[in-house]
Amino acid sequence: MLFDIDHIPFSRKGRFLTLSMMKVPGGDGARALYLRFVAGGDERPSLGRLCRVEFLDAMGKPAQATFELTPERLVARINAGSLTFVIGEGERLHVRGENAGVRFHLEGSRYDYVYRTPTGVDCLVAAVENVKFIPRAVSGTLDVSGAWQRDHSADVSFAFTGTGIFEGNVDFFRTVPPTAPLESFADALSDVTVEFEKWYGKVPRGAHGQDAAHRLASYLLWANGVPVGGQLTRPAIYMSKNHMINIWSWDNAFSALGVAAVDADLAFDQLAAIFDHQDGSGLLPDYINDRDVLFAFTKPPVHGWAVSLIAARHPDFLTAERKSYLRDAIGRQVDYWLTYARTDATSLPSYFHGNDSGWDNATFFAEGGPVISPDLPVFLILACETLATLLESDPARAAEWNAKADALQALLFVRLWTGATFGARLAGAPDRILPGENLIQFMPLLLGTRLPAEMREKLVARLVAGGFITAWGPATESPKSSFYEDDGYWRGPIWAPTTLLLWDGLRRQGEIELAREIAEKFCSLASKSGMAENFDARSGRGLRDRAFAWTSAVYLLLAASLSDDNP
């Protein structure tokens, strides 16, 4: 079952409000459903945890629940009773119960408290989470508890119960209560159902027999969306509302690719949400959330490649305004790498840390850095080509970017081609190829006709013979490598972004059958194991966070390529 609340959070586009399963703090590994507000980023141990959800039977006693998750609602069944949760307008949770009840236990920080507002309603404050919430009973009973203890309230909770059917709702806010009219549970359910189905109706058709995976991927790209506010200058798609509650500056490009066919404005927003915070040097932050912009790391410059793919599939995407914005932003990005990440114009740029490469702990960073790897000049060459296209009305400037691409290509072939493959080298010891058999060596396939036939043939043969393409898709480190680990993060598991990059590279080299094989394997993998952060390359088991946006985006793109309706 792919729609499983144990792995997939319940949320809605443009909301921080989320219900998901988490480990109980201080417990023995036990998990419970938590009410969360996923603002503030993933460096906080709480990850937005507000309240532990406790289910009550018809007699008001604690009881176990089973769950049914769909994009528009979460249903908890308790014996003969049930509770249904719906996310309505703004950050508002609606609850409808029948022969059951629910209590929300505030499990927060030192200064959490509850007070009575001037209008006579109870307001709970999760102080460190910086969130306030007001519960209301529409029908049935609302019970709010919390004993004052010098400077905070202890044992704060609220419960909805009733004889037969009851309804309630909870508003979440930062400053003053929202003034939006209270909608009914039925209206909230109807509105969110229509919203999701409208979204889903625009998603390109997928692979035959994979309806559940197709719907899950569509849901996650929709439900992982968060609103404008704080450092978020645009509506953003977080990687997940489980643990990875940020937008990173290369995952944003894959999310943009995934939603371009559904919502062109949202696709552009994914790119601009990061570029809006670009440093004057051209450096992009590692990630942003509503609170933070982190420059300790950055990410690989895949954005020129992504924009070219979007424009090829959706010619209307590049309006004059978007073209101007992206031309300037991507131009500054390339200049950063060519100015600050290399010694001079006769050398290749390098990554200072594995996190900068996006491959975090990959084997080519086993000895530290800076590392000169073949993917970085490839991404910069593709960005230069995109910039030249964006400057078609200015041939002189377009020629300058094409010249930079040619210069990088020459350096790539001279410095990193070994005669058999493209290797990675330490910037401080450039005469030695770093050990490992990782997928990074095949990124020059993206160069298309720029890559000489001899290199292409050797790379494709090495890819096939090297054991990289397992039954489930391309492993980031070959299972034949001594560095390989089943759950080694970037040392073996299958990742969506590298799968898409390899797929596109093979297509550009005319290796259509091999590209299709990889697409089929990855789609089968996602259909089996969901939209996980990464996957065990040998068993196909989903690893780490199981509700990932870029996995969903890549699945939808590859599934569409396999569909008879989307050749």
From TrEMBL:
One of its GO terms (biological process) is oligosaccharide metabolic process. InterPro entries: 6-hairpin_glycosidase_sf, 6hp_glycosidase-like_sf, Glycoside_hydrolase_63, MGH1-like_GH. Residues 246-551 form the Mannosylglycerate hydrolase MGH1-like glycoside hydrolase domain. This is Glycoside hydrolase family 37. Keywords: Glycosidase, Hydrolase. GO terms for molecular function: Glc3Man9GlcNAc2 oligosaccharide glucosidase activity. Gene3D superfamilies: 1.50.10.10. Belongs to the glycosyl hydrolase 63 family. Pfam families: MGH1-like_GH.
